[in-house]
Automatic annotation (TrEMBL), chain A:
One of its GO terms (molecular function) is ATP binding. The keyword Zinc-finger does not apply. It comes from Sinorhizobium glycinis. Pfam families: ABC_tran (PF00005), TOBE_2 (PF08402). Residues 4-234 form the ABC transporter domain. Keywords: ATP-binding, Nucleotide-binding, Transport. Belongs to the ABC transporter superfamily. It comes from the Bacteria. NCBIfam families: PRK11650.1. Its main location: membrane. GO terms for cellular component: ATP-binding cassette (ABC) transporter complex, substrate-binding subunit-containing; maltose transport complex. This is ABC transporter ATP-binding protein. It is a peripheral membrane protein.
Automatic annotation (TrEMBL), chain B:
This is Sugar ABC transporter permease. Keywords: Cell membrane, Membrane, Transmembrane, Transmembrane helix, Transport. One of its GO terms (biological process) is transmembrane transport. Belongs to the binding-protein-dependent transport system permease family. It is a multi-pass membrane protein. The chain crosses the membrane at residues 12-34, 75-95, 107-126, 132-150, 157-181, 261-283.
Length: 378, 294
């Protein structure tokens, strides 16, 4: 059954076009995470679903009911805010019961709902405290509890873990996933943290400049990004991009040359390209191999810097005339990720290698034109 | 010297900065108040010898019908001034709409704050004038005759308080507008998601956030009502027949015009005690949440 349906949603702020023709259908019980860079419209979209923002055009349905013009309280949603937004003058119990109290539910029912939420979130000891007396993690739990007591059709989360420290964030991430499994409710979650997106989502929605770039399961999006933006946005460290030009094309195969004279041949492109077209080659840091003589494409370079992260090593390699574009580090060097710890001397010569089958090719409009790669089964 | 300065500047510098203010406050407020209380135990015309009379001034106050009128009028001021915070809040909520041109409307409401209270008094004296005032015009429009508010001993205090309420409401309005600007948008959003709107939204979500502002508005209003003086002086000089005097005005009248400084000081002391009681309550309420760490 469809839980939430967005049909041609548009949003204008004066002259600013915040949401552009957003269409999305979310099934009952899904955990959908919306990600994107700041200003991409993900929070606006969430607030639009909540009813805190109006839509300029389009229809919004929750469980088949048109709620486009309804007040937030009448939509069957509950929301957890980044700032927690707890009522400071109310106790934890009053905070959690406020929604039901506004709905004029009998006191016994409110008490039961609050007790149940408190049990799930381990807040039984805190019910009589005021929000100020709680820690950040506890406050976030109260905010979640306030959502649970209303037994909404849809839970909305607006960057709920951003204000927590790293350890607590990991803990709450696990708790939220557990909670989703326990309640089985539809949840829509906005974050700029791709780790949260990859770990919690049943589906990820990538937004950019008010438009949905791609929707899909985390590993699908990671393995088969539809375009340059999604390829660059998901994955840390980021994919290496190299600008190139098509020098020979024959049916679905094409040969490209990159700066520094590197030539790569792609055999089965999904779209034909013409000679002279500018393209972008992409290769994930973990798909670049150091000193592998068997690799089909090999690049000579020097180690610029090495980061030892304990279980993995990130090596930045300067490949001379061959430069990458738009990297995380703001330089034009290649990022290589190695799954173990190996020492490298700065300045030492290394050979980078990869297979064209592991690489991506993006057309001049940013679309991915290499065929889909097999997704790891989980 | 430099070592001495380095070791002790953490208390020397603040002390030096506080000194001028403390000195001024000590002389003008503390010393003057103490002397006023002292003077209230004497019979004194302001120039000649002071004569110790003990509590005689206070005993006389108890039987002074004029003092009872002043006290009663102060209570009327206090009660009617309590309208200022809710009226100011209502206006602030009304004016806090994102409508084009609202800034101009807002600034119009600030006008009485710009005017000296003496001006407000004079303007209202004209408004109340039974022959050519605005009030008589309005009454005349309906074919009625306007009451002479300022010469009616039963209505005069109410008329003066209404005039004084004008700037007081505007003051509360400014406070609440500032408070409304600082509302948490997320909190209002949370309230809307929880289904609160209209009255419940105001009571449960908006007002608790305005608690501190309301408290300041209330305190300023109470103090404003108790120290009311200038409006009475300008509009009625306490008349007719002393029916619109308040404690502050009676004190001034007794001391300056009747040369009874001891008696005036006794009235001032009573007013001081009333104020002190209120301020003690205020500080207690203000400091309580701080002590509880909330």
């Amino acid at each position: 059954m469809t839980s939430v349906e967005l049909i041609n949603i548009e949003k204008h702020y004066g002259g600013f076009h915040a949401l552009k023709d957003v269409n999305l259908s979310i099934a009952e019980g899904e955990f959908v995470v919306m990600v994107g860079p700041s200003g991409c419209g993900k929070s606006t979209l969430l607030k639009t679903i909540a009813g805190l923002e109006t839509t300029s055009a389009g229809t919004l349905r929750i469980r088949g009911r048109d709620v486009t013009r309804l007040e937030p309280g009448d939509r069957g949603i509950a929301m957890v805010f980044q700032s927690y937004a707890l009522y400071p003058h109310m106790t934890v119990a009053e905070n959690m019961g406020f929604g039901l109290r506004m709905a004029k539910r009998p006191k016994a029912e409110i008490d039961a709902a609050v007790a149940r939420a408190a049990r799930i979130l381990r807040l039984d000891e805190q019910l009589e405290k005021k929000p100020k007396q709680l820690s950040g993690g506890q406050r976030q739990r109260v905010a979640i509890g306030r959502a649970i007591t209303r037994s909404p059709d849809v839970f909305l989360f607006d960057e709920p873990l951003s204000n927590l420290d790293a350890a607590l964030r990991t803990q709450m991430r696990v708790e939220l996933s557990t909670l989703h499994a326990e309640l089985g409710s539809t949840m829509i979650y906005v974050t700029h943290d791709q780790v949260e997106a990859m770990t919690m989502a049943s589906r990820i929605v990538v937004l950019n400049r008010g438009r949905i770039e791609q929707v899909g399961a985390p590993l699908d999006l990671y393995t088969n990004p539809d375009n340059l933006f999604v390829a660059g946005f998901l994955g840390a460290p980021r994919m290496n991009f190299v600008a190139g030009e098509v020098i020979a094309a024959n049916g679905s195969s094409a040969r490209i040359v990159c700066s520094g004279g590197l030539e790569v041949t792609f055999e089965t492109l999904t779209t034909q390209v013409g000679v002279g077209e500018t393209v972008t080659l992409g290769i994930r840091p973990e798909r670049l191999r150091l000193g592998d003589a068997a690799a089909q494409i090999r690049i000579a370079g020097n180690v610029r810097l090495t980061e030892y992260l304990g279980r993995e090593t990130i090596v930045y390699v300067d490949a001379g005339p061959l430069v990458t574009t738009g990297s995380d580090s703001g330089t034009s060097v290649f990022t290589v990720q190695i799954a173990d710890v190996r020492p490298f001397d700065n300045g030492s010569a290394v050979s980078l290698g990869f297979d064209p089958a592991d690489a991506y090719l993006f057309a001049s409009d940013g679309r991915t034109i290499t065929p889909s790669k097999p997704v790891a089964k989980i | 010297m430099s070592t001495f300065w380095r070791n002790h500047r953490h208390w020397i510098a603040p002390t030096l900065f506080i000194m001028p203010g403390a000195l001024l406050f000590g002389v003008v407020i503390i010393l003057a108040s103490a002397e006023t209380i002292w003077v209230s135990f004497f019979d004194w015309d302001g120039v000649g010898e002071k004569q110790w009379v003990g509590l005689a001034n206070y005993v006389q106050l108890l039987d002074d019908p004029q003092f009872h009128v002043s006290l009663k009028n102060n209570l009327i001021w206090l009660a009617m001034f309590m309208l200022a915070p809710p009226l100011g809040l209502a206006l602030a909520l009304l004016l806090n709409q994102p409508v084009r041109g609202m800034r101009v409307v807002k600034s119009l409401f600030f006008v009485p704050l710009v005017l000296a209270s003496v001006t407000v008094g004079v303007v209202f004296t004209w408004v109340y004038d039974p022959t050519f005032g605005l009030l008589s015009l309005i009454f005349g429009y309906f074919g009625a005759t306007a009451p002479a508010l300022l010469s009616d001993e039963h209505l005069v205090t109410f008329a003066v308080v209404v005039a004084a309420l004008w700037p007081q409401v505007a003051f509360c309005l400014v406070l609440f507008l500032a408070g409304l600007n600082n509302l948490s948008e997320d909190l209002i959003g949370a309230g809307r998601v929880d289904g609160a709107r209209g009255w419940p939204m105001l009571i449960h979500v908006i007002l608790p956030q305005l608690r501190e502002v309301s408290f300041i508005a209330l305190a300023v209003t109470v103090i404003g009502a108790l120290r009311s003086f200038d409006m009475v002086a300008v509009m009625t000089s306490g008349g007719p027949f002393g029916s619109s005097t308040v404690l502050a005005y009676q004190m001034y009248e007794q001391s300056i015009f009747s040369y009874r400084f001891g008696y005036g000081a006794a009235i001032a002391t009573v007013l001081f005690v009333i104020m002190a009681a209120f301020i003690a309550w205020y500080l207690r309420t203000l400091l309580k949440p701080e002590r509880e760490g909330i």
